[in-house]
Design a protein that fits this description.
Elements (H helix, E strand, L loop, with lengths): L6 H28 L4 H24 L1 H14 L3 H38 L5 H26 L4 H29 L3 H39 L9 H37 L5 H42 L3 H28 L1 H8 L7 H26 L4 H21 L12 H26 L6 H25 L5 H22 L5 H6 L3 H12 L6
Length: 543
């Protein structure tokens, strides 16, 4: 593209789109959970089917954008536009075929998966209606990766936001129609909610096809000025694509498998100590409400991991290791700034958040408290994995996560069938503990390897400042909440306390000078922010 997007511009574009995506995603999940006739049972059916779909989707496409972005960025860094375009076209054909295969497997195997593996027969229909999405998302992933490699994050940002918008609209419309026709049949309602996903992916595909057609003329002009072209056979290019895609996809596959461990083991394990109906409700709490809340802040951080891969690849290709380290360090600190207050905030206000968002099904306080601990480790793990992939350590994230997932599986098998009366970490809490331990281990391994290859020198004073800011936020907002509950309603007190928590945290980050002048100015609107700071807090003279 003529006008290259900067690293921070790309991140901000993705954060903005992810903000829209998560708000819309939370909106339809609130609607489903609070909808009469759906609730935690509906969430169990919806989530179990969706996790199987997500696993097959991961195998066929999820790791593809970063892999394609890395290969395209390598070609573009030496001005080989023809080579970048060839990688895109071969990837498109290959993953369309893989996606089609995944679609057929899910469609044909829905009955066996639902009845034998999940032990939730009601999930069969949800799997069938989701299956076409695998084909479309496989194609979508290649197109997004291609534009990411060209440092054009608009394709991913806008297509993801558009997809989530239509998913939310379609979910409400379809479920409402089904609820009226079927007299709130939860099985058909859950299938309808997942069918909305399929329709939304088709909309996203049509948008990206249109976007590519608009950019095609510009791409053709760049092909005419392409240099350092290195012609390779289709088989050689495909091997190169798969050599990068497979290890990068493997970590995504393992992340999806991590979720599927719960879908395979929780209902099965809980059924040994409680009724099948109660087991599904417990899984619905974990897979529906809690996972939705925990994953809400994670998507914002994915912007750093997504933008890091092509950015570091470009820097390494130019032998600019200093720039690569600077981007990695900034991303890790930024991830921590997002993660820590989210973790602490959800632990402190878990009960209030559940009652505010899910008034008709607010159970799960302890599950949310413990699950929130995983936020910080998953976020740091995402960013570190992006950095490792950018410097060419493609296998490390997969190896680290495979160790973590193996330990989670063991914990689930041992603790889920144990009653909470005998051991605190029994039942669903055992599955939550498994998830937390999994991501702690994966983070520690990834950080050790990254720091061994690139001396990060993050600066532990900054980390201490973030911890102090988070604790200050938690103390002041919780005190305010308990004062307000004697004056106004609990819901209004919760909203005000959370808003004040955000303000207190941002001010503490500014006052404690977590970011220096260079880091602030590196942000797209950093110069404007920096110029205002002296007026606000006499900040600039000492930076």
């Amino acid at each position: 593209m003529k006008k290259k997007m900067g690293f921070m511009y790309g991140i901000i574009a993705l954060i903005f789109s992810q903000g829209i995506i998560k708000i819309l995603g939370l909106a339809y999940k609130l609607y489903l959970t609070n909808r009469e006739g759906f609730g935690d049972i509906g969430n169990a059916i919806y989530s179990s089917g969706f996790q199987i779909y997500a696993l097959l989707l991961t195998i066929s496409s999820i790791g593809v954008p970063n892999a394609v972005a890395k290969l395209v960025a390598e070609r573009k860094s030496i001005n080989d536009t023809i080579g970048a375009d060839r990688i895109f076209k071969i990837s498109l054909i290959a993953f369309a075929m893989i996606g089609f295969t995944g679609m057929i497997i899910l469609m044909r195997g829905a009955n066996i998966i639902a009845n034998t593996f999940l032990q939730i027969p009601e999930a069969e229909l949800t799997l069938v209606v989701l299956s076409p999405s695998i084909f479309f998302v496989s194609i979508i992933s290649v197109i997004r990766g291609y534009f990411n490699g060209l440092n054009d994050m608009n394709a991913m940002a806008k297509s993801q936001a558009l997809e989530q918008l239509f998913k939310t609209i379609f979910t409400v419309l379809i479920v409402e129609v089904i609820a009226i026709i079927s007299k709130t049949d939860v099985t058909i309602m859950a299938a309808g909610a997942n069918f909305a996903t399929t329709l939304a992916t088709i909309v996203s595909f049509l948008y990206l096809y249109y976007y590519y057609k608009i950019k095609r003329t510009e791409i053709k002009k760049q092909r005419n000025h392409s240099k350092n072209c290195r012609h390779e056979s289709a088989i050689t290019t495909l091997k190169k694509i798969l050599c990068v895609t497979i290890p990068m996809s493997l970590s995504s596959i393992l992340s999806s498998l991590n979720k599927n461990i719960d879908s395979f083991t929780v209902v099965r394990g809980l059924s040994k100590i409680m009724s099948s109906e109660k087991a599904k409700i417990q899984y619905g709490i974990l897979g529906g409400k809690v996972d939705t809340l925990v994953s809400f802040p994670l998507s914002f951080n994915m912007s750093f991991a997504t933008a890091l891969v092509p950015a570091i690849t470009w820097a390494i290709s130019r032998n600019d290791k200093k720039d690569a380290i600077k981007k990695i360090r900034f991303s890790i600190i930024s991830s921590l700034i997002i993660a820590l207050p989210c973790t602490i905030g959800m632990i402190v206000f878990s009960d209030q958040i559940l009652n505010l968002l899910f008034p008709n099904a607010s159970e799960g306080t302890l599950i949310l408290k413990l699950s929130s601990i995983s936020i910080i480790f998953i976020m740091l793990e995402q960013t570190i994995n992006g950095a490792l992939q950018g410097i060419g350590k493609l296998k490390v994230p997969a190896i680290a996560l495979s160790i973590g997932v193996s330990i989670k599986l063991l914990i689930n098998l041992l603790l889920v069938p144990i009653s909470r009366e005998k051991f605190f970490f029994g039942e669903v809490m055992g599955a939550v503990l498994g998830t937390v331990v999994c991501h702690i281990i994966s983070f520690l391994i990834g950080f050790y390897i990254l720091n061994k290859n690139i001396k990060l020198n993050i600066g532990y004073i900054k980390i201490l400042k973030i911890i102090i800011s988070s604790i200050l936020m938690a103390v002041l907002s919780s005190k305010l909440y308990y004062v307000l509950t004697s004056i106004i309603s609990i819901k209004m007190a919760t909203i005000i306390a959370i808003v004040v928590a955000v303000i207190v945290y941002i001010l503490a980050i500014i006052i404690l000078r977590v970011f220096d002048k260079e880091e602030i100015i590196s942000i797209s609107v950093g110069k404007k922010i920096y110029s205002k700071l002296p007026k606000i807090l006499k900040y600039s003279n000492k930076l």
